[in-house]
Description:
By secondary structure, the protein is α/β, with parallel strands linked by helices. Helices cover 30% and strands 17% of the residues. It is built from eleven helices and twelve strands. The two termini are 30 Å apart.
Amino acid sequence: MTAEMSESQDDRLIDSFGRVHTNLRISVTDRCNLRCFYCMPEQDPEFVPRAELLTFEEIERVVRIATTLGVDRVRITGGEPLVRRQVDRLVAAIVRIPGIRDVGLTTNGIFLKQQAPLLRKAGLTRLNISLDALDAPTFQKITRRDRFQDVVDGIRAAQDAGFDPIRINAVSVRGLTEDQIVPFGRLAREGGVEVRFIEFMPLDADNAWERSRVLFAQEILARLESEFGPLDPIADGDRRAPASRFRFRDGRGRIGIIASVSRPFCADCNRFRLTADGRLRNCLFSLEETDVRELIRGGAADEQIAAAMKRCIAAKKEGHEINSARFIQPERPMHSIGG
């Protein structure tokens, strides 16, 4: 792609509502060593054959093309990204791409004890660790695996490796995690991490999501404030970020809330996704995909891939419509889309 094309404002990734997309989330695998009920089936999940996964070189090419269209932030996800070998090598390659200023990774933390130093050395900027409960029995009920201590050890290893801040992502589910809110508040105040509560979203493999099971943002805040006192909004962040952030008034700790259901942030969304098998998705809840793997392996030029990327973003809908009768849950569950 020529310099003239890359400098043109028309070559930014802009949808029909004027939203400029600069944040690419890349799934490197749909496999995982947990079986969280809100993400994938407990038994016999269907995984993409390994030959159909994008190679690291193909992913790097997609990122290089995306940067010519204004993308400057990348997050690596799964499945569980660290079950794929040498993810640190991919991180290092993306960090070196001109125009990329931030590379993050979301993980369940199980392999961080071994891999945190490698990821830090590779240049990883931000680290989010998924942990929905702070006691082993509830953790096992959610994940359907007995790996709680491995995650705890992974968080400590990440801190020892120098990651700061570390964000803990906790999915909140009514009837299951209410008693976890205050302990997570204590962790945010005393554990050197920022906890992000995430409203339960309709992306489960069993299609069992019900709105009645969503533990809403306002309820989470009320429980925290009843225990710790007032929480003050933090207004100095990026308005396009999915989390609303708060600080405890006494200055000890911060939390965030991703209220995808009760407070949709679609109007400011700047994110799109690349699945492990090479499909572009302009929304987490999209019902349509753009196959870039076929283009790459079919010999398409960078300009053709860039054009497909632009068409994908241009077709983005106004919002996900979870709160309307028009909502249709995607066929792909969360582990297959990418977190």
